[in-house]
Amino acid sequence: MAESSAPVRASIEGTALPLVGKSDVKPTWCPGCGDFSVVAAIEMAVKRLKIPSSNVVIVSGIGCSSNLPHFLSSYGFHGIHGRSLPVAEGIRWSNHELTVIATGGDGDGFGIGVGHFVHTMRRNVDMTYVTMDNQIYGLTTGQASPTSMMGHKTKSTPNGVIENPLDPLALALASGATYVARGFSGDVKQMADLVANGIQHKGFAFIDALSPCVTYNKINTFDWFRQRVYKLEASGHDPSDLTKAWQRALEWGEKVPTGLFYKTDKPTYEDLEEVLAAGPLAKQPAGLKGREALLDEFL
Amino acid sequence: MSEISVRAGGAAGDGIASVGENIARSFSRMGLHGFGLNAYQSVIRGGHVWFQGRASPQKVYSQGDACDVLYAMDRQTVDIHLPSVSGGGTVVFDPEKFAVQDSELPAGVRKLPVPTLQIARKFTPQSILQNAAGLGATAFVAGIPLEIVQQVLTESFGRKKGEIVDWNLGAAAEGYHFAEQNASVNDRAPKAAGPPKLLMTGNQALGLGAAAAGLKFLAQYPMTPATGIMTWLAAHSRDLGIVVKQAEDELAAVHMAIGASFGGVRAMTATSGGGFSLMVEALGMAGMCEVPLVVVDSQRSGPSTGLPTKTEQGDLNMMLGAGQGEFPRAILAPSNPGEAFRAMVKAFQLAEDWQTPILVASDLHLSENLMTVDRSEISLDVDVPSLFTVEPNGHEYRRYQYTESGVSPRAFPGQPGLMHIAGSDEHDERGHLISDTRSGVPLWVSERTKMMNKRMRKLTGLLGATEPPQLEGPAGAELTFVAWGSTVGAVRDAMGLLTQRGVTTNLLRVETVYPVHPAEVVEAVSGAKKTLLVEGNFSGQLAHLLRAETGVVLPNRFLKYDGEPFYPMEIVGKAMELVRG
Predict the structure, then answer these.
(1) pLDDT tens column, A150-202
(2) Bridge partners of B91?
(3) Residue A2: band (very low, low, confident or very high) from pLDDT cuts 50, 70, 90
(4) Using a CB-CB distance cutoff of 8 angstroms, which residues of chain B are in contact with residue A139?
(5) Residue A267 phi/psi, 5° resolution?
(6) Residue B108's pLDDT band (boundaries 50, 70, 90)?
(7) B410 near B265, Cβ under 8 Å?
């Protein structure tokens, strides 16, 4: 498709434009929160790719993790609960030279916003989505989330959760995501690699970051994960094999795989939307001056 | 006044809408003013649908009341519509399908049995051409020249050529000539009156107006009666360079539009009341994040799923109150396609100038029916200035800088040196939230008040930037109508009929529904001898608003919520009761 639909990424290297760094707003997360690793990984990834901070937009919804855009020096949109993805899509389609990253939690993305999650993936919008999955509602002080495990006792489920947890990776594979990965806040380097590769991936990149809540989730703790995680890249997993990716995605319990589950190349929504072939929408002419002939259809 | 109305009725799937549209377009091609009412149900096949095409050398604003020619595709149409045929009128039908007895005809009404099926079978064994024959016969009685109806019929096939088009033209000609030999042209049929007029639906006008205003991005979810905005823009997407996105739901649609607007393009969404309900939280976000947004609510009968294919003006309270908390907004309510075009241009300008959501209220009656428009009413020559006006100036950029007008400099992602965050939480001038560690701390308590005041100051600006309500008609009239939206059309027609009856009336037309312009409302209402509010809902929502904002009381109300549009004669009836007692 048209070259113009490819996002501008590393190409601005060498100019004086500042790269993404920390903003002067200090994170408000609890000490030890897994989300510190995620913001660090995103910062490392965009710095490594040398994308100027003015070309990065971080979009979020509501929840502890959705405060993330405030802590980096890029553009940001901190919207309402569950709606980060459609806002991110709108931004991306208004100017597909921008690097758009959506961030949020498991409640935001897999509860109230799960419809958008599915549809954004089937469109293969060229953007990156990082969920900080702590399997609990933190900002509302500890209720069950869509990824809370069966039996988990929370303030809203004092006798234990009695519904099956949603599997974000399996859902992503079923929905047509073209880059599906899982990181763990105990390994910032791996997470930064997954995010950087996700940004570079042409298509929708989904990274589910296991990001423990140190205050409200006493089950899925850093230690719980450290005892279970293993890296797919060290286990000979072939990320181009969808069937294998399915098998790994369903694996949860004694062992929890991290790394890249699946990657494939497909045309992006921006490739297929013909109007965008003429360049970023924000830079195209607008209005109907000189188009009087348009009225003939009404005669 | 020489004017004519043609009604066609049958079951859904019979092709009544296309017969009707061909009649309406033939009239507009003759240079006549007109209105085409498409009355349908929420079924794809069966039921009862009908179309009324009205035409006159003088301006008409509604579907009118009675009809002069009735083309009945089925017996049910005769049963329902025969009482509406005026004296001197004609009922066109095919006796092979059903009978119409002379004894059941109203006084002065004739019947014209036309062998439409026989004519159709001359060309092809299927009955599909019967409507072309019926159209031809109906056109003759309505005084439409054969060349014009054939021309319109040909164009209705688009680029399609070949025998199907030829058959249709042949069947139309046979129907026309059959009527010529067996009937006469209706006495009220107007002659051609000048160059062709534009004929469009409100939805087309809304789409066209948005495009003229610089729209680059529409996201929408299908919902009657707003769907036509999306389908018209989708058909022109590539040509006009407008991205049209059918979203997964109205939540996505409005958020996509907000995202696109934040990204630097003019963006909108459109829906009906049910979808608008889903967009409510996002409206507040656009207000809080100060993102320009245009939303069309094309109302239909509610509550809930209501009557999906029937009209109402029941969403005004929702549009006024949509969203938790308070933020500035404006609501514009055009009454016809010309006004709808201009309202969209205005809505986009207001949204950009004041960086807040602007709502355009349509309804099924305006959105889906056909009306003629003079070319002079639609100017595509609309200036669309660049949105990228802010450059780094060495000082710290503050997206939500306190200003006298409440409007702060707006930069876009991709612009170096102007990075900022749009926050749906309450925030400081830089967009950083004051909702967590700073909330409740004295300094930030006063910042919250300052930021609210900054946003709400835009309401003063919006008042100055919008048109006050207009008083149409003579001062000192015996009766002053008050109306908004599509209802204005039937009121305008009623005013003409009342003049003929020796009653002088004027109309306070409230096109800017919000913000309310108190001085003009008070002046018009306090100067009125008698008032009559005409509004398509149960509770008189406009009357409540005007009373709340200005103290004026509108005690006489003609309220309608049966799903049907207002008819001029029913308004005349109410007015006569009031004026003559």
Answers:
(1) 999 999 999 999 999 999 999 999 999 999 999 999 999 999 999 999 999 99
(2) B70, B111
(3) very low
(4) none
(5) -60, 145
(6) very high
(7) no
Tell me, yes or no, whether B236 and B173 share the same domain: no
Q: Tell me, yes or no, whether B121 lies in a domain.
A: yes
CA distance B229 to B241: 16
Q: Which two tokens stand for residue B370?
A: 């056909």
With the C-alpha atoms ordered B165, B166, B168, B169, is the resulting torsion angle positive or negative?
positive
Domains of chain A: which residue ranges?
18-298
Q: Does A293 touch chain B (CB under 8 A)?
A: no
Q: What is the mean pLDDT of residues B553-561?
A: 98
Model ipTM over 0.85: yes
Domain final residue pick, B377, B396, B411: B377
Answer yes or no: do B106 and B192 share one domain.
yes
Q: How far is B348 from chain A (nearest CA, A)?
A: 11
Note whether B20 and B124 are same-domain residues: yes
Cβ–Cβ contacts within 10 Å for residue B305, how many?
A: 11
B17 and B84 both lie in a single domain: yes
DSSP state of B433: B
Task: For domain A18-298, give the CATH number.
Answer: 3.40.50.970
- B361 and B491, same domain (yes or no): no
Q: Identify the DSSP state of A149.
A: P
Instruction: Look at residues B377, B404, B424 and tell me which one is the last residue of a structural domain.
Output: B377
Q: What share of chain A is helix, strand, coil (3-state, %, to 5)?
A: 40, 20, 45
Residue A141 Ramachandran class (φ > 0 left, ψ -120 to 50 alpha, else beta): left
Return the closest-CA partner of residue B343 out of B356, B331, B353, B354.
B331
Taking the CA of residue B66 as centre, how many other CA atoms within 13 Å lie in the half-sphere pointing to its CB? Answer: 16
Angle, helices B130-141 vs B16-29, to 10°: value is 40
Residue in B248, B251, B421 closest to A76 by CB: B421
**Assigned token pair, A80:** 């309402």
H or E element that contains A116: helix A114-123
Task: Tell me: do B37 and B164 sit in the same domain.
Answer: yes
CB pairs under 8 A between A and B: 212
Restricting to A residues 191-210, those with a Cβ less than 8 Å away from any Cβ of B are none
DSSP class of residue A273 equals -
Residues 6+ apart with CB under 8 A from B385: none
DSSP letters for B148-205: HHHHHHHHHTTT--SHHHHHHHHHHHHHHHHHHHH----TTPPPP-SSPPEEEEHHHH
Q: Shortest CB distance from B375 goes to which of A78, A119, A295?
A: A295
B139-171 pLDDT, tens digit per residue, is 999 999 999 999 999 999 988 888 999 999 999
- In tens, the pLDDT along B363-412 reads 999 999 999 999 999 999 999 999 999 999 889 999 999 999 999 999 99
Q: Does residue A114 carry a pLDDT above 80?
A: yes
Burial of B253 (0-12, 13-18, 19+ CB in 10 A): buried
Q: Does B47 touch chain A (CB under 8 A)?
A: no
What does pTM read for this prediction? 0.97
d(CA A266, CA A5): 14
Three-state SS at A5: helix
As for how many domains chain B has, the answer is 3
For residue B432, give the chain A residue with the closest CA.
A70
Which residues span the domain enclosing B351? 200-377
Give the domain CATH number at B51: 3.40.920.10
**Whether residue B225 has a cis bond before it, omega within 30° of 0:** yes
Spatial contact of B186 and B88, defined as CB atoms under 8 Å apart: yes
Burial of A162 (0-12, 13-18, 19+ CB in 10 A): exposed
Three-class SS state of A119: helix
pLDDT of residue B1: 54
Which position has the token pair 């802590």? A71
